[in-house]
Amino acid sequence: MTVGRTLLKSLLTAALLAAGLQATQADEWRTTSSLIGESKYGDNFQHYDYVNPNAPKGGTLNSVVLGTYDSFNPYIVQGSPAAGLIGFGGGLLYDTLMEQATDEGSTSHPLIADAYKYPADYSSATYRLDPRAKWHDGQPITVDDVIWSFQVLKANSPMYSRYFENVTDAVAISDREVEFHFSQKGNRELPKIIGDLAVLPKHWWEADDANGKKRDVTKPTLEIPLGSAAYKIASFKPGSEIVWQRVPDYWAAKLPVKIGRENFDTQRFTYILDDNAAWLAFTKGGLDDVKPENSSRRWKTAYDFPAVKTGDVIKQEFKTTSPEPMQAFMLNQRRPLFQDRLVREALTYPFDFESMNRTLFFGFNTRTSSYFQGTELASSGLPQGKELEILEKHRDKLPPELFTQEFKLPVYDSPQAERKYLKQAVDLFAKAGWVIKGGKMVNAKTGEPFKFEILGWNDTDQVISSPYIANLRKIGVDATLRLIDQTQYVNRVNNFDFDVIISQLGQSESPGNEQRDFWSSKAADRPGSRNYAGIKNPVVDDLVDRIIFATDRDDLVAATHALDRVLLWNYYVVPQYYRAVVWLAYWNKFGIPDKQPAYVGADQNSWWIDLGKEKALATKYRGSN
């Protein structure tokens, strides 16, 4: 029997190799997963090469959060989750099967699972649990927990639902192994991204609460949940504060992904409703120790308060090598106003990036011209080779110029540019049946004005929107900005109750199943998805599947080029800009490794509190710490 199985496996391997599949690595346990090549750490991964493995533990990290919260359940559409909880992944509370690397793209290392494997046809994946993994109450994390979590998250989380669409079920193979089955073969990414599954405690959620009522994982809650990660909720004031405490006997503290990281004994998040108040809180110290800065104007002009001048607050720029997000005005096609491609194209021309970058952003920004900016996945020039072959199948459903013109956004590089581009916008509106009458853009048949609202929640939205709105009004388009509180904003966006929003869509170096959540027709109707533009395009759906089931890297790159090009030429969004740096200002109370991971720019989890510096600051700025 053993000889027969060996011969059968050899024949299968040869057949799969002939088909171009990676059979040589199939069905072998592996501890590190990567979609873009082998990890630099190999099998002898001890800890990240940038951390201080002997970093001291202790101290408090203070942070300010804008808005409020009303739930400790981040995996459902209802409610606003508290800081430290995230809708995809485990946040501060839950561990995932594997942990995404901080210094390499599309790479994961062991956490709850110490290894995984999959067959050569990518029809399933098996994860083996680390026997040391346990919940904060001391109970072991079990295969039943994993299976239950998969079922709950796929049923209730919009992000996990789309991400794991092709995962049909999860079954126990043994008391340590769980096997996930896939509905289709050839999804090269799926075995790896199963590792992103957050594992929830089945025994806690299915038990009664302190009042004897049945807990419900499908509803918001302010009962402190049981977790498994490095932190647990120590205290909270509903909507205004939440304090996390490091778990002293955290089971994974000695795993390679954790050594030298998660060094703060306490993480305190204070909620403030107003951005200006949050800024003042940072300048005074005590409530906010690290400020990620997004405002070019503030970075350039506002860091001149006393603590900066004395060196007690430090400004530092961290360059990044990860893909840049598509930040844009998202045009909601669920509104009839934006369903005409000509209209959407017309709305692209009044956005004067160059003037904004010069007058508002001090030249710090670069125009975004791809949904996969900063990677080899970004389309350019004219389609050719395999990409052209892919697009040819859909030629009759695509804009003809996609095949003959390089996609270019307007460039306001001269005094004449504004007149030129606004005229092009007016001409496109005319083709779509809109004309200017009495200074207003109106529908030529009904007289209805072209009017829409940009929904936002912070001052940055106003800075970005105001020049765009001013240019739109020059061609009679009545655009306005409405700022609302963050909780209301999140609820409206989750339910697609907006005309236009400013948002970001981040990508990885190996796109896959998450593309369904961004662009698919099914996601357009699912509350909480990231298909903000409401795209329902069969060509896009087909290209997304082509990416997900790409046979190799070259095929993936070609398919992604095709998707990028189709998205751009359909003008679903008005692209804005990016910066390939992370700006951080921080109070000088930290120890920071000399090296930081270039992929993400900075890993604050690798920092630690210098207790002497912390005490000195508290003395100097009385009452600030």
UniProtKB/TrEMBL annotation:
<feature type="compositionally biased region" description="Basic and acidic residues">
    <location>
        <begin position="514"/>
        <end position="526"/>
    </location>
</feature>
<dbReference type="Pfam" id="PF00496">
    <property type="entry name" value="SBP_bac_5"/>
</dbReference>
<dbReference type="InterPro" id="IPR000914">
    <property type="entry name" value="SBP_5_dom"/>
</dbReference>
<feature type="region of interest" description="Disordered">
    <location>
        <begin position="507"/>
        <end position="526"/>
    </location>
</feature>
<dbReference type="InterPro" id="IPR030678">
    <property type="entry name" value="Peptide/Ni-bd"/>
</dbReference>
<dbReference type="InterPro" id="IPR039424">
    <property type="entry name" value="SBP_5"/>
</dbReference>
<protein>
    <submittedName>
        <fullName>Extracellular solute-binding protein</fullName>
    </submittedName>
</protein>
<comment type="similarity">
    <text>Belongs to the bacterial solute-binding protein 5 family.</text>
</comment>
<feature type="domain" description="Solute-binding protein family 5">
    <location>
        <begin position="109"/>
        <end position="523"/>
    </location>
</feature>
<keyword id="KW-0732">Signal</keyword>
<feature type="signal peptide">
    <location>
        <begin position="1"/>
        <end position="25"/>
    </location>
</feature>
